[in-house]
Amino acid sequence: MNLFTLGGEQFVSWVTGIIPTVLMLLILMNAIIALAGQDSVNKIARSCTKNPVLRYAVLPFISAFMLGNPVALSMGKFMPEFYKPAFYASATYHCHTNNGLFPHINASELFVWLGIANGVSQLGLDTTPLAVRYLLVGLVANFISGWSTEFTTRYVEKQQHIKLSRDFKE
């Protein structure tokens, strides 16, 4: 019975903690989109979707930096269906590898970075170069993740005999 009690307490903590936070972030994102205009956001998405570097390195990084985890992942809704899995793969990793320099992106997993940084600090070393390297390696690895997922999506399309849309819906 204690297991169910603890589960209930965890659920209540989500209802009073993370769920309102995510809801407010989604409202903020939709307000920004409304202020900027749907056409402007679609134009940015079109521009970024044309180039793999923009699609899997720049847009996910900006989304993670500006919106944080998990709202950064919702920026994929502006992309054609074909690119959504790869964008999600890249954006998910951006929410982790940028944490050393930008802890606001994924505060709930800051303990991972702090654990590594603590070990480096105990050696008497500065953690800033490590955070910069973590970010730079992350940019490359996250791009590779997105691009390889795009190839995987093509493979699954052929295997399943389907064709996902690569066009924007107006």
UniProtKB/TrEMBL annotation:
It comes from the Bacteria. GO terms for cellular component: membrane. The chain crosses the membrane at residues 12-35, 56-75, 131-149. The keyword Transmembrane helix applies. One of its GO terms (biological process) is phosphoenolpyruvate-dependent sugar phosphotransferase system. The keyword Transmembrane applies. Keywords: Membrane, Transmembrane, Transmembrane helix. NCBIfam families: EII-GUT (TIGR00821). This is PTS system glucitol/sorbitol-specific IIC component. It comes from Catenisphaera adipataccumulans.
